[in-house]
Amino acid sequence: MIGGEAYAQQAPDPGASLGAPVTLARSASFDIDAPGGAMRVLVSWPETPPPAEGYGVIYAMDASWSFGTLRDVMARHDVVAPAGVVPSVIVAIGWPTPDLVDMVRRGRDLVGKDATGPGFASTLALLTDTVLPRVEAALPVDPRRRMVLGHSYGGAFALRAGFVRSDLFSHVAAGSPSIWTDPDWFLDPQRAVPGQKILIALGALEYADAAGAAGTSPERVARLRKRDMAGRAERVAKMLDAQLVVFDGAGHGSSLLPFLDRAAKFLGE
Questions:
Q1: Which of the chain's termini has less CB crowding within 10 Å, N or C?
Q2: Is 141 part of a structural domain of the chain?
Q3: SS3 category, 29
Q4: Would residue 16 count as lying in a domain?
């Protein structure tokens, strides 16, 4: 047996001997043209028939890190049917790469300023003017249960999209949002939208002192302190009267999984 880098360099594609690629039931994908290049959309819908008012729907940024987990979360809820969870369509937006992420375009498309090229506004227009109408023409959706969701840069996108298009999004779920990318904009008190439901989630180890005590590298702690990840998120949550959830023992990356599970429940609230 060989392992690690040697295996990656010498071994043939294991898919050639293991079988055909996996195809997910009740799912579809399509690409759409955008000013900064094509983006890929993945859609999954419940096995259960829609309620009379329609399915809930979650528009999730960063398909690579949101689609599979949200799909599994909602499939589990379809079986277990916990109180308050509504059957929901998952619509995840990413990039047309093998793993659905483009680290060069990700920051630009989610938090970039359109004055310097395609950025947040272009991506939001793509979501609201192209993706949303196409999905909701094909599947019955309850506009009272329409969420925009994201984590990190995607969390900043979700918050900003919720402010800008509060007429479309009844729910906003922002995990570890990168408020540091434009703190003055996010902390403007005029952003509050009466009646909009907002969830902000953090990992407990996004607090610099807690991260340091847990043995996080000094470089990472210094970055958390400089960006004031947790402090700014707390201030935005207070300003918006949003739900703030902190996951014990989780950092920026590891808070993603519990955040997605919590967001699925939040859509039913």
A1: N
A2: yes
A3: strand
A4: no
- 54-67 residues labelled b (16+ CB within 10 A) or e (exposed): bbbbbbbbbbbbbb
In a domain, 153, yes or no: yes
Write down how long the chain is: 269
Is the separation of the CB atoms in 246 and 235 below 8 Å?
no
pLDDT at 11: 61
Report the number of distinct structural domains present in the chain: 1
Say what the pLDDT of residue 261 is. Answer: 93
Q: Cα–Cα distance between 174 and 89 in angstroms, integer?
A: 18
Angle at Cα 120 formed by Cα 74 and Cα 66, nearest 5°?
Answer: 20
**With contact defined as beta carbons under 8 Å apart, do 74 and 42 qualify?**
no
Is 4 a domain residue? no
Strands 171-175 and 197-203: parallel
- Could you say which residues of the chain have pLDDT below 70? 1-11, 77-84, 115-116
Q: What is the pTM of this model?
A: 0.91
DSSP sequence for 95-151: -SSTTS--HHHHHHHHH--GGGSS-HHHHHHHIIIIIHHHHHHHS-EEEEEEEEEEE
Rounded alpha-carbon distances, angstroms, from residue 179 to 190, 237, 266: 16, 11, 21
Mention every residue, 6+ apart, whose C-beta is less than 8 A from residue 210. Answer: 204
The pLDDT, as a whole number, for residue 1 is 43
